[in-house]
Amino acid sequence: MRQYKTVIGLEVHIELATKTKIFCGCSTEFGGEPNTHTCPVCAGMPGSLPVLNRQVVEFALKAGIAANCQINQLCKFDRKNYFYPDNPQNYQISQLYLPLCHDGWIEIETSAGKKKIRIHEIHMEEDAGKLIHDEWEDCSLVDYNRSGVPLIEIVSEPDMRSAEEVIAYLDKLRCMMQYLGISDCKLQEGSMRADVNLSVCESGSDVWGTRTEMKNLNSFKAITRAIEAERERQIELLEMGRPVIQETRRWDDNKESSRAMRSKEDAKDYRYFPDPDLPPVHISDEWIQRIRNTQPQLREEKQQIYQDEMGLSDYDARVLTESAHLADLFEKTAELSQNPKRTAAWFMGEVLRLIKEYGTEPEKVCFSPKHLARLIYMVEEKKVSPANAKKVFEHIFNEDTEPEVFVREHGLGIVQNDDLMQRVVQKVLAENPGPFSELLGGKDKVFGFFVGQMMRELKGTASPEAVRDALTEEINKNRR
User: Fold this and answer.
1) How far apart are CA 375 and CA 369, in angstroms?
2) 252: closest CA among 261, 243, 244, 241?
3) Hey, what's the signal peptide range on this chain (predicted)?
């Protein structure tokens, strides 16, 4: 069989985290009863006029600057005309001729190393509504709550050659947007959506094949499966001597297959023309500079700081910066505890364990940094044992409990009571005469058994060091 290479470009739609829609004052909150976040503007009523939301432009500028784009300081909105039930105006307000951002790039990292992916443009546009297909009633219902929600569309050049590169690119975009604070990029809620344009051609050929576009991809796993399936489908067609048709295909992840939706349109098919209701947007040098000056640290910069200034390993720095929200929690906790390495150990251990155990999204973790910082101090000051501290932290994680109050109310603190310690030592030794005889006879491995028995008896209210000291003292007495 001939060898083929895959050529992939992406169109990524990202919903912006503004409170209101791009051209009206309706809420952008996800969910809500159908058609309750609507008004004459986003419902496409005749005579209604759009008014541009300034924050949409600010967010789009943040994305463009972070993606090393050039900025069109005079940009315009256009009407993209098409007829579909979830498009109430029968056109979408978008940008074609003068998009806000163009000619950028981001760097991804894969198993093959680092690679730059060029970005053709980033433009602003409004989202359409949502069709809900009711198979029982054999009908489709339209919810316009999403209509008019602000989007940026990030259009890449066809620089990707594998599913691995695509996922690395999407993950980089998602992380970047979350750090910028302009989108939560939740694929399951549709706030980040990717259309995959894919073609195959013979290895070594300068002539690319006919591309198809795949839609309905709402997870990284689905995107990976769709890319592999479409690559195989196109290669099979070429091997049979049949042409690949330029079309838009819908991916069904349950069936792990795609089907044709419609022939793939070109820009001319949408009859773009400048929107007569929206004036051009002028982006001043001062506006761009202000955005540059207020850009937050992105993941790569934080990773370097964690290693250089906090002394963390490369692995820990990578894991702790995967979520912008968790990175912020970690930094605040580390500042309060004044012990970044100990704080990192808690996040890498207990925080990530509980996130996995409870199936919590990292962005929804909401305990107070001061409570974990105080718990770290309490362990260092030997006011609570490490084992009991983990029990306390689970309550901090779920209920944001004040650690000192919880330890006191549940008797989990380390007690300094020599009489109690001696009574427990004598009790444990008396209850285990066989192992005690072995210990007195020089079998030192049994010592750990008695430490465990005492810790269990004391229920974590004594430090391991204090238990070992008391046990050693009692053994020495019996050896005299």
Assistant:
1) 10
2) 261
3) none
Determine the Cα–Cα distance for residues 86 and 81; give it in Å rounded to an integer.
Answer: 13
**Structure-block tokens of residue 284:** 């001043």
8 Å CB contact between 29 and 22:
no
CATH number 1.10.10.410 is the correct assignment for the domain at 418-479: yes
Cβ atoms of 265 and 81 within 8 Å: the answer is no
Q: Where in the chain is the domain with CATH 1.10.10.410?
A: 418-479
Q: In this structure, what token pair is assigned to residue 475?
A: 């053994």
The answer for residues whose C-beta is within 8 angstroms of residue 158's C-beta and 6 or more apart is 7, 8, 9, 197, 199, 208, 211
Say what the alpha-carbon torsion angle 346, 352, 358, 364 is, to the nearest 10 degrees: 90
- Alpha-carbon gap, residue 151 to 165, rounded angstroms: 24
Angle made by CA atoms 65, 307, 297, in degrees to the nearest 5: 20
Q: How confident is the model at residue 446 (pLDDT cuts 50, 70, 90)?
A: confident
Tokens 């409170």 appear where? 19
* C-alpha to C-alpha distance for 214 and 257, rounded to whole angstroms: 11
DSSP state of 270: G
| pLDDT tens digits, one per residue of 135-175 | 788 888 999 999 999 999 999 999 999 999 999 999 999 99
String of DSSP letters for 280-319: PEE--HHHHHHHHHTPPP-HHHHHHHHHHTT---HHHHHH
210-252: pLDDT as tens digits? 999 998 788 999 999 999 999 999 999 999 999 999 999 999 8
**CA separation for the pair 84, 44 (Å, rounded):** 13
In 250-284, which positions are buried (b, 16+ CB within 10 angstroms) versus exposed (e)? ebebeeeebeeeeebeeeeebebeebeebeebebe
Kindly tell me the burial class for residue 93, based on how many C-beta atoms sit within 10 Å of its own C-beta (0-12, 13-18, 19 or more): buried
Task: Count the neighbouring beta carbons within 10 Å of the beta carbon of residue 156.
Answer: 24
For 373-417, the pLDDT digits (tens) are: 999 999 998 888 888 899 999 999 999 999 999 998 888 887 665
Q: How many angstroms separate the CA atoms of 204 and 145, rounded?
A: 48
pTM (2 d.p.): 0.85
**How far, in Å, CA of 66 to CA of 119, rounded?**
12
- 176 touches 66 (CB < 8 A): yes
How does DSSP assign 370-395, residue by residue? HHHHHHHHHHHTTSB-HHHHHHHHHH
